[in-house]
């Protein structure tokens, strides 16, 4: 026999359904705002490049360039609650942070426009920098000497490992992005209880940029180029030719860091 629901039961269920719908709409709205901002920042960083040249004395020069397209810059400001005329990069804060460091120095920094940043950084001793625990957590950057073995000469190996455990430290190495913007973005890699990469991708496809735009999003990456003091004998996580090592890291992977990002290169000491 089929039971017939009482009027009061039907009313209660109707109110519960309405409540769930309100919560769902609010949740979708919050996701839309957060992930729109993430998507905007990620797409804007397609032009990010970090060039590093290591010399024979193990000092290094680093050149960083970031450019945010005007339309995306406007969208990022809107979502982050930032003034439409405000710079996305805080040059004064960069100078202040680097003034208190002893293993890495800011040689030059400028904001050619409100949406771009260029900087030159000097590291007197890469090995000392990698061991500076005030900046670099154990394992994030390492420079070690490998003894000669058989026909192989003694070598130097530089390795970098980016994980969720050290993501905050990696970001803090290059401060200067507006704090309000970061607070509004909440990148999964910096969250204590982050969404999964699959959840992030689902929201990109269904809420933020749509499936048709995902190929363009997936093509976005940050380029890391390292010139070693001598011919590179071995590498991992990128490609090497002569003295130049190149790694191209998808922004999706950097934003989520669900899997560690690692690369390394070796040359004769």
Number of domains: 1
Q: What class do helices, strands and sheet pairing give? A: alpha+beta
Overall, the morphology is: globular
Cα radius of gyration in angstroms: 23 Å
- Average pLDDT level: 78
Explain what you see.
The structure is a single chain. The chain is an alpha+beta fold. It has one domain. Helices cover 37% and strands 27% of the residues. It is built from nine helices and eleven strands. The strands form two sheets. The protein has a seven-stranded mixed sheet with strand order 3-4-2-1-7-10-9. A four-stranded antiparallel sheet has the order 5-6-11-8. α1 packs across α2, α1 packs across α7 (197-208) and α2 (70-80) crosses α6.
How is this fold's topology laid out?
Elements: H1 7-44, E1 49-54, E2 60-67, H2 70-80, H3 91-99, E3 105-110, E4 116-123, H4 126-130, E5 141-146, E6 155-162, H5 167-172, H6 179-185, H7 197-208, H8 214-219, E7 221-227, E8 232-236, E9 239-241, E10 244-250, H9 251-256, E11 261-268
Parallel strand pairs: 1-7
Antiparallel strand pairs: 1-2, 2-4, 3-4, 5-6, 6-11, 7-10, 8-11, 9-10
Helix pairs in contact: 1-2, 1-7, 2-6
Comma- or semicolon-separated keywords:
globular, 9 helices, disordered N terminus, 269 residues
Short description:
By secondary structure, the chain is of the alpha+beta class.
């Amino acid at each position: 026999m089929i039971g017939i629901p009482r009027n009061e039961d039907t009313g209660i269920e109707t109110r519960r359904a309405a409540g769930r719908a309100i919560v769902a709409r609010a949740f979708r709205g919050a996701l839309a705002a957060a992930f729109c901002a993430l998507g905007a920042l990620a797409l804007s960083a397609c032009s990010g490049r970090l060039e590093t040249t290591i010399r024979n004395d193990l000092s290094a020069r680093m050149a960083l360039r970031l450019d945010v397209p005007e339309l995306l810059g406007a969208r990022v400001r809107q979502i982050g609650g930032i003034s439409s005329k405000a710079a996305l990069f805080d040059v004064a804060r960069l100078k202040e942070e680097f003034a208190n460091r002893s293993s890495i120095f800011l040689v030059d920094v400028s904001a050619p426009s409100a949406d771009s940043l260029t900087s030159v950084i000097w590291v007197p001793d890469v090995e000392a920098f990698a061991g500076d625990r005030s900046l670099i957590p154990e394992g994030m950057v390492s420079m070690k000497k490998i003894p000669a073995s058989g026909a192989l000469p003694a070598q130097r190996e530089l390795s970098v490992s980016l994980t969720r455990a050290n993501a905050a430290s990696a970001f803090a190495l290059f401060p200067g992005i507006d704090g309000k913007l970061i607070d509004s973005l909440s990148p999964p890699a910096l969250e204590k209880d982050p969404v999964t990469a699959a959840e992030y991708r689902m929201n990109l496809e269904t809420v933020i940029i749509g499936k048709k735009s995902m190929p363009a999003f997936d093509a976005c990456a940050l380029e890391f180029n390292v010139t070693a003091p001598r011919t590179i004998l071995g590498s991992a996580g990128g490609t090497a030719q002569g003295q130049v090592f190149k790694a191209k890291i998808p922004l999706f992977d950097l934003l989520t860091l669900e899997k560690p990002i690692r690369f390394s290169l070796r040359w004769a000491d």
